């Protein structure tokens, strides 16, 4: 129970009303700060440049490729990230890491395919004739 007035002292109606009005003016405690997370502006469609960027950067992402890592790195939404992972897994660029679950895609980069792509790029660079720049003649 609340504090009782000491013997012989009774609060008047004015004192009670004044105490009640002061309590209502006090600020009430807020339980949360209410911090709102910023809304992400991720892409819903892929254009050709985004596709090329994902195709070149995906092998360099490391040993763990999930929907969330693809979505964060390339700023695409989750459904588009799942479709990209499925597409590159079907093409052989990605291989599943361990047992797969239908809810969580966990993949790694297929090292053999990446090595073959690097070798093809090196061979293409070697086939191109290199032009030598002539030094400007001194006067």
Automatic annotation (TrEMBL):
Keywords carried by this UniProt record: Ribonucleoprotein, Ribosomal protein
Comp. bias intervals (Basic residues): 25-34
GO cellular component entries: ribonucleoprotein complex; ribosome
Keyword Ribonucleoprotein attached: yes
Pfam families xref list: Ribosomal_S25
Keyword Ribonucleoprotein on entry: yes
Region Disordered: start-end pairs: 1-34
Similarity field: Belongs to the eukaryotic ribosomal protein eS25 family.
Xref: PANTHER family: 40S RIBOSOMAL PROTEIN S25
Protein name: 40S ribosomal protein S25
């Amino acid at each position: 129970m609340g504090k009782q007035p000491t013997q012989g002292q009774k609060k008047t109606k004015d004192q009670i009303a004044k105490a009640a009005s002061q309590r209502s003016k006090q600020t009430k405690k807020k339980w949360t700060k209410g911090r709102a997370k910023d809304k992400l502006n991720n892409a819903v469609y892929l254009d050709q440049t985004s596709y090329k960027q994902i195709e070149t950067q995906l092998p360099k992402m490391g040993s763990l490729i999930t929907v969330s890592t693809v979505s964060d790195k390339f700023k695409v939404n989750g459904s588009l990230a799942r479709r990209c992972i499925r597409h590159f897994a079907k093409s052989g660029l990605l291989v599943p890491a361990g047992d797969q679950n239908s809810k969580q895609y966990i993949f790694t980069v297929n090292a053999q395919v990446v090595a073959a792509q690097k070798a093809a790029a090196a061979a293409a660079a070697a086939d191109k004739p290199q032009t030598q720049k002539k030094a400007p003649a001194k006067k």
